[in-house]
Amino acid sequence: MYLDDAALDGGERMSMRVRRPGVRDGYDAWSTTYDETPNPLVALDRRYTMRLLEPRPSERILDAGCGTGAYLRLILLAGSSPFGLDFSRGMLRVARRRLPSVPLAQANLDDPLPVRGWVFDAVLCALVGEHLENVSLLFREFSASLVAGGRLIFSVFHPEMAAAGIEANFEREGVEYRLGARRYSVDDYVDAVDRSGFRGLRVHEFCGDAALADEIPWAAKYLSRPLLLTVEARKT
Ligand SMILES: C[S@@+](CC[C@H](N)C(=O)[O-])C[C@H]1O[C@@H](n2cnc3c(N)ncnc32)[C@H](O)[C@@H]1O
Question: What is the CATH number of the domain that holds 156?
Fold first, then answer.
């Protein structure tokens, strides 16, 4: 879920305890219920990001920050060969159970990627960026792992939301767990891609809309507010 305090009514806010477990421990804890948690950002991302990725048969596609494997599954269904990385053992456990044939590895995207010897036709990195310390390293590593002309599809929680103090969170047994969101700007992401050996950048900003509010009624407060940023590019 991505919420701000305004999502909770006064009574709930008063009684809810808040914990900040850190990003990795937070996703480990969230992993068992992540796929069932109504989440406007994820819903919007699901609407656009696969369309941008357009996986083709036989392509090798890296899903960096693959979580529970929602995109790994769709990539596999398209006849491509996915490879998933994530640093949360809990999220990887769910992905492995769901997709036993897909290669997965535990990796911190703030470090050099453990994919030397692999080369990919496309890299997807969906809804991870605001958790990362070093996005410049990330895009350089993506560039190094792509074939010439290979595609990058990057989607992220819109910086305006993070700037408004909204962050990834979930609730369990009267406790709200907050996972944090770094305050990057749109330009921080776009410039880092641009400096990392990519060309043909296309940037899109997607706002909450009526269809999203139909799907998740409390997301009506995001009507016309930018929720999702995507950057597409090709390796030079
Ligand atoms: C919001 S989930 C998105 C998962 C998936 N991409 C999706 O669209 O469902 C964010 C994921 O990023 C992972 N993550 C966050 N920081 C990370 C890091 N530094 N290195 C690797 N994975 C990270 C989390 O473990 C989690 O699985």
Answer: 3.40.50.150
Q: What range defines the domain where residue 157 resides?
A: 2-235
What whole-number distance in Å separates Cα of residue 30 and Cα of residue 26?
A: 6
Count of structural domains within the chain: 1
The pTM is what? 0.94
Ligand 1 atom closest to residue 125's alpha carbon, by position in its atom list: 6
* pLDDT tens digits along 69-114: 999 999 999 999 999 999 999 999 999 999 999 999 999 999 999 9
Ramachandran angles phi, psi of 128, nearest 5°: -120, -30
Give the residues surrounding ligand 1 with Cβ less than 6 Å away: 23, 27, 45, 65-67, 70-71, 86-88, 91, 108-110, 126-128, 131-132, 168
